[in-house]
Amino acid sequence: MVDKRLKKELISYLVVGILTTVVSLGVYYFCVLTFLDPRNPVQLQVANVISWIAAVTFAYITNRKFVFKSNSPHIVKEGMSFFGSRIATLLMDMATMFLLVTLIGMNDKIAKLIVQVIVTVGNYVFSKFFVFAKRS
């Protein structure tokens, strides 16, 4: 059975993850509906990177405060570690978007939703065990 603290952490992470996904999708859709063309592979990735930067910034602040309740005085190091771990999932995101949209021809908006689920799981693992891991 999952202990109470872990259960609360997972629920908090899911809520923050949903809000982060809203930020990511909102910025992505804004980009592709206003000034970038998702049919162009380069512009697709530019929209993806812009949405990633907005989402990761939001995610770091909210994960630090509400999910993992970090009190580390090394906020710059922790922030760099957080952004660094997100680069791994960004590359996974970009590769999957390229595969689904550019190679397979899936609708970019549906593909982005699928990719968000995969990325959310990867982000939790990195955050829990590397970025906000309690060190003795």
Q: What would you say this structure looks like, in words?
A:
The longest helix has 31 residues, at 4-34. The chain has helices at residues 4-34, 41-67, 75-103, 108-131. It is 82% helix and 0% strand. It is mainly alpha-helical. It contains 4 helices and no strands. The protein is elongated, with a radius of gyration of 16 Å. It has one domain (4-131). The two termini are 25 Å apart.
Which features characterize this protein?
about 140 residues, mainly alpha
Please state roughly what percent of the residues sit in beta strands, choosing from under 5%, 5-15%, 15-25%, 25-35%, 35-45% or over 45%.
under 5%
Number of E-state strands: 0
Separation, N- and C-terminal Cα atoms:
25 Å
* Unreliable residue stretches: none
Approximate shape: elongated
Main sheet specs: none
Q: What does the radius of gyration come to? A: 16 Å
Mean pLDDT: 91
Counting structural domains, the number is 1
The residue fraction in helices comes out at: over 70%
**Helix-strand pattern:** HHHH
Number of helices: 4
What would you call the structural class? mainly alpha
